[in-house]
Fold this sequence. Notes:
The chain is of the alpha+beta class and 116 residues long. It is 16% helix and 27% strand.
Amino acid sequence: MSTKIYVGNLPYSVSDASLKSNFAEFGSVASTKVMMDRDTGQSKGFGFVEMTSAEQAQAAISALHGMSVDGRTIVVNLARPREDRGTSGTHAPTEYRASNRPDVGYGTGGYGGGRY
């Protein structure tokens, strides 16, 4: 089973290939991904590395956490599971619905349905 590692505070010059070569010293790297800004195409300054074993991942974390890369002290630790933020453009069923507010609706006063 592979282990995913978060790598933060990366210099903007770091690419997927350079990230892979740095982590390959500690074992087999399954994948690397430097997160890029959708609009500008520039690095967001963090990425993820997936290593094939937990032991290799822990060795990489121990060796690389706090290391200086191009004048920046990088953060290396186990990646946390992604939080579910819901789908964009929609609200949770209980948020911002007129049916959940007693003062909004037809016949309760006013042109817009609210009370005056």
